[in-house]
Each structure stands twice: as C-alpha cells, then as structure tokens.
Amino acid sequence: xxxxxWNGRTIPGEEVRIDPQDAGFLFGDGLFxxxxxxxxxxxxxxxxxxxxxxxxxxxxIEIPEDAAALEAAAREVAAAAPAAIARLRITVTxxxxxxxxxxxxxxxxxxxxxxxxxxxxxxxxLPQYPVHSGGALAGLKSLCYxxxxxALRNAEAHGAWEAILVNESARLVEGSRSNLAVVLDGxxxxxxxxxxxxxxxxxxxxxxxxxxxxxxxTPEDLAAAGEVLLMNSLVGVLPVSEINGKAVPxxxxxxxxxxxLGGPWSLKGG
Amino acid sequence: xxxxxWNGRTIPGEEVRIDPQDAGFLFGDGLFxxxxxxxxxxxxxxxxxxxxxxxxxxxxIEIPEDAAALEAAAREVAAAAPAAIARLRITVTxxxxxxxxxxxxxxxxxxxxxxxxxxxxxxxxLPQYPVHSGGALAGLKSLCYxxxxxALRNAEAHGAWEAILVNESARLVEGSRSNLAVVLDGxxxxxxxxxxxxxxxxxxxxxxxxxxxxxxxTPEDLAAAGEVLLMNSLVGVLPVSEINGKAVPxxxxxxxxxxxLGGPWSLKGG
Lengths: 270, 270
What we know:
2 copies of one chain form a homodimer.
Chain A: E1 3-6, E2 9-12, H1 23-27, E3 30-38, E4 41-42, H2 45-59, H3 67-79, E5 85-96, E6 99-108, H4 114-119, E7 121-125, H5 146-157, E8 162-166, E9 172-175, E10 179-184, E11 187-191, H6 201-208, E12 213-215, H7 219-224, E13 227-232, E14 236-243, E15 246-247, H8 253-261
Parallel strand pairs in A: 7-8, 7-14, 11-12
Antiparallel strand pairs in A: 1-2, 1-6, 3-4, 3-5, 5-6, 8-9, 10-11, 10-13, 13-14, 14-15
Helix pairs in contact in A: 2-3
C-alpha cells in the first residue's frame, strides 16, 4: 500500500481526494515537482524543494511547512513507494479559502529501457506549441501544463518520446517534460533561462559543475548538432536518436554525464 | 442543499471529490464554462456549450454526453442552486485513464452592486501578465488560468475590480475574467480573436447583433476611449470608472447594451 502525505498527515495514498473548489483544480493555481524514487529513496530532494519554495514565494502562496518538514514527508512517502522505481510528486496549490493544499504521493514509474539509453529516443520538433518566454508563469513548474501535455500527445502520436519546443521568437527552449541540450563543437549547450525554459534540477547540476553552458539556440543548431540530449529528474540524461525521422549522430556525452551525475542514472545503459 | 451533476449522476454538491490523478488537477488539462443563474435559471446555456464542445473537439477530449444531455444536466443543477443569484460552472477534464471528468456545480454569486453599474468599476492596466496570442491554448477557456488569477489578485490588491491584459505585441486583449471594449468615435470596439482574447458569450452576442466590432486596439486607444466597458456572462456589461487611478468618461453605452442583451443584466443599474 502506498502512503501519501496530505496537508500535514500521512494516510493511505488511495484516500486522497481533492475538493472541487481547490484553486489547483479550478484554475491550475499551484506548482508541482516530480522526483525519482529508487528502492524507497527519493533523489535530489533539496534541489526540488529549493525550486518549489522559490516558486511559492513568487506566487505568494504560504504554507505552514518549511523545507525540512517537506523533506521528511517526502522521505517517508518515498520509503513506502509501491514499486522499486517510482515517481514522487509534490503538489502545492492555493487551495480553498486560506488553506493551501500540500500533497506528496508516489506512483509506479517505468523508466526508458537500456536500449533507449544506448541508442537514443526519437523526438518531434513542434513549433506549433510555443513557450512564451515573457509570460507571467515563465520558469515556474506550474500546474498549468496543458500546452506541454498537448505537445507530448502530438509527439507520442508520431511514435516519439518527446516534443521539442521553441519560444515566441523561434529560439529553442526545452522538451515538454525535459530540458534540452545540444553538443556543438564539443560544447554541451542548453537554452537560456530567459528564453523560457524551466530550470530543471538535472540541468542545474550540470551547469553548476561546469559540464554544460547556457546558450541562445536556434532550430538550425538543433539540426547541426553533433549530439542532442534530453534531461530530467526521472531519466537523468537521454540521447536523442532522431528528430522528425531524421537521424541524429550518437555520441558518448549522455552516458558520460550520467556517470558524473551518479545516483540511479549512472546505472543505466553504461 | 445544492446539487451537482458529476459524470452522469446527480448528487449533493458537497459529495463531489476529485481524484488527485485527474489530468485536470495534475496538469490543468481541461476546460470550463461559467454561467449566471438567476432564480434557478441558467442563462445562455447553448452559447456556453457551443464553446465548450468546440474546445473539447480541438483538444481531442471525448465525452459521452451531447449538448442536449449537458443542457438538461445544467438546468437540473441550476434549478437547485443554493442562492437567488448563483454561478454555475461546467468543468470537463481529460480525467484519469480513458475516463474524462464532467462536473456541473453551482456556488452563490454576489454580482457588483447598482453603484458599480451606475458609476463604473476601477481597473488596473497590467502589461506584466501578457497573453500569448500564438499559444497552443489561445482562445480556449482552459483550466490553465493561473496567469489570469495572478493578474486579478494584483488588480484587487490595488482596489481594482479587473486587470486589463495585453498580448506579446502590446495589443489590448481582454480582462482577466471579462472581455474588454472601448468606445471610440461612437463605435464600440473589442479586441480581435487573433490578438488572443477568449471568445466570450456576451461578446459574441454583441458582435452577432452588430452592436460591437472587432478591432486591433492599443493601450493608447484605451487611454483615449470615450468609454471603457467590461463584459462577461456573470455581470453582463459593466462600465469602467478609472484606469490605474485616472478617471475614464462615463456614458450610457453599458446600460444600453445591457438593455439590448435582456435577461438578468437588463435589471441592473438602469
């Protein structure tokens, strides 16, 4: 039986139910984080809580818990995850009245297979789902994720694993559920914050360690790249095998970065 | 006791609870409509269902009910509304698995007072919450409404009734919860669909009757307008009294348009 932590209490996961007057359900007025859980341990909790608490502050959503309390709750829920590999989601909404909703819950997660890590995954370049880099929600992992989900559905309908998105100025931004990087002249380059991407936790670690740089990138850079990479907290770093059916060169960069990251991702695909 | 219609069944309103795995809660992946209820009668149901069903088709969300079934459900829920004036909300999400969520529920609603209709309401011009006219959700009444809610909170913190929004090209678009019109040289002009506004039901009726025209409008037009109007299905047509503290001329247009619209709105403020 999975556990959930809900507004300060730990209960069986299947007992959680949301008030239809919750601002998260009415208006998408909230934020979320997704973490990977391996054998009951959630990875990178502090980086996710950093981002979450910064976002809540920007939105003026006040919750009674501090980072330590949320971390303890996340560890407790992760330890009771129903599968060896699981996805842990932290959701905070403006709630109903003056009571924000806080929810931490897990679901089973099946990561991409070893094949995907070795040979890469196909993606679709979908400029018809542009990110607005100047929008009021830019950089927030908002519950308002419908456009990303539509892009992902479109990509999946074409057999692709991810949709690659641009912004209103046709600059590369990110995937619908991952950050993007390209290898150009031996450098690993990722779209800049100001171009509208979400500041992902794996992206942050690679930037902090000097293994990747922010760069303003165009669709031409994507087509010319020596390697194309996707990254998020669930998969680590995945190579891209083709874009809209056109093959992309495969290299050793994704594998190298996973080894450097360590944790559960270093075990995948060598 | 209020009633709600939930996935084909009519139940007491307070029994509705949302699955935390609902795509509406997880990702804002759904649509909604808000209708005014007066003495148990909901107004303009067909226009709202038109927009809702067109949006669901665009999103490839399939529901078992047709317009007639939804209208019957809305009438039943409206008839049991807990207050003489109420707000009826129709929400449809992609749900969980292959089961979309359909919910029709009411809440008490207090319309602006006669004073507001006679003297107008203050608004804030807030270009820092730009609408993306080229976004994948443009024109949809999506559950992804967080940016609008933030703009409204900002406006309300300044004592205003509404936030006036522009698009990425600094064209006027709409209010955070209403359509916008300006009176210029005796013509009633409202921002164009392609500039990013939501196609509101009151806006539609005024356009269809030739009482208002679509026009590309700038913030300068707002400043120069002889009258400024807000419209939605809850308030009908409301005049604006001031923008960021600067007085706006008051005229008879809002009152005239309410008389033409008829229904509950014609009773307000003469």
